[in-house]
Each structure stands twice: as structure tokens, then as C-alpha cells.
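Lab notebook, bench 4. The sequencing result for the construct came back, and we need a structural model before the next group meeting so we can plan mutations. Quick request posted to the team channel:

Model the 3D structure of this chain.
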Amino acid sequence: MSTCPNPATLIESRIDRVLTQYRESPKLLHVLRTNLGQVAAAIGAICSIPEKFDIETAVGDQLTIVGKRLGWPRCHCVCDIQPVFGFACDVPTKNPIGGFCDGTVTWSDCGPFGVSELCLSDDDVYRAFLLVRRYQMLSLYDLASLNEAVRLFWGPTARVLAAGNRRVVIAPGRALTSVERALLQLYPRVLPVAPGIRIRFHFGALRVFGFGTGWGGFCEPWLPDGTELATENETLTTETGDVITVGPLTRGAPWLCEIDANAYDCASR
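Done. Here's the predicted structure in C-alpha cell form:
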């Protein structure tokens, strides 16, 4: 909420100081109010500056200036890998796959590793990085602060999944969007993690195999309501028309998979 003074109040408070013998001169009062109006407008503009540069509400150039003061500009140098010729599949690969017209190289071992500039043009995406950057600037390296930071990026499902052995494992807890995947190399650069501690990511299910609260076991619920029984052409039903299903299905919790985003190293990507 703005605490800037009301221009009319400023003007009239000064007019009230005019000596009585001059108050019957409308031309003098008009000149005074005109000049005082310009001063009041300047005071209002100066007073509103902090609000324009509030990290929660700033947009455009104002947000860019906030980012520069925080040491996190909009544009960053990231690894750029030339796509190789092939056909897309469900198995992740370190090289992007392209066709005849995508500037691809013939063999995966021949693709050059280069760099390119990635700019955070979306204000909301950039704002999230700046909010996390504050934790890093203040050296808030505790797990509670890191959990708050990762939730600013990926929402309430994100958390620090494991820590120890000079590394932390962060789990977004959901599938990443295409934009979030493109920014993967930037996240480790800004997260509040102490120097010397490695940052790893786990992109699978959150109930990872392990012991204790929050960890999964050998028989985790997979399809609690089962699945419908069906032949090649139709779903099986009872005489009353109820669909026949199998019982609840379970499967073992996935193993913890620690992935390095290679925040600064292009050669290993």
C-alpha cells in the first residue's frame, strides 16, 4: 500500500501559510498553486520509485535493474549441443535429435560442444530466479531455506530429497515443462547451496526406495483401483453391467537417480 502524500494536501498545506492580506489575490494564489502542483508531482514521482522496483511487482526494465543489483542478469551463457540426425524416442539422450533440415550432424560423436546465450525474457520466470537469488546472496545454506527456494521454482511438490556426502539431491516432484527443462543448467547456479556441495536432481517419483517416513518400499500402490479386464474387442462386465476389474496393483518404489545438470561444464554433457 502506497504511503505517498496526497498532492492536493501538500499544495493546500502550503497555501495555508500565505499571509491573510494576500489571500484575496486570486491571481497570486493561482500562480502559487500552479508551481506547488509541479513540486507535488515531482514528490509523488520520487515517492513511487521504490514501489516500481519491488521484486514482487516490478516488470520489464524495472525488474531487469533489480536483477542487475542482485547480480543475476536476464541473459546467461549455457551449453549448446548441435543436434544429431535420428528419430525421436522416449529414451532421454544427451544430444538433441533432429531431421534433415535441422542443422544436424551425421554421427553423435561428431557433434561440437558450443555455448549460446539464454535470456529469461518472461518476467514471472525471471522473478522466480531473483527470489531464489536472495537466499544465495544472504548465504542461507540451511535445508529449510533450500526447501523454500526449490518450491519457488517448482511449487509445493518440490523438496530436498537427500543430503550428505557433500551433495544435495533436489526433486521437483513433478514432470518439468519444456521451458523448465531448457533452464535446467541455470538452476544450480542460483540455488542457495554452500560452496563445495554438489547439486544433483532426481526427476522420478518422489517415493524413492528407502527406509523411514516419506520413502518407498517393495510394494508401493500403483493402481489402487486395479485395472479393467478386457478382451481384444470389449471390456468385460458382470450380468448387471458392472465392469470387472483386477484387484489393487503395486510395484516397487524407484531407486534414487542422481543427475548432474552440469551447470558450467559443456564438455561432459
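The radius of gyration is 30 Å.
Will bring this to the meeting.
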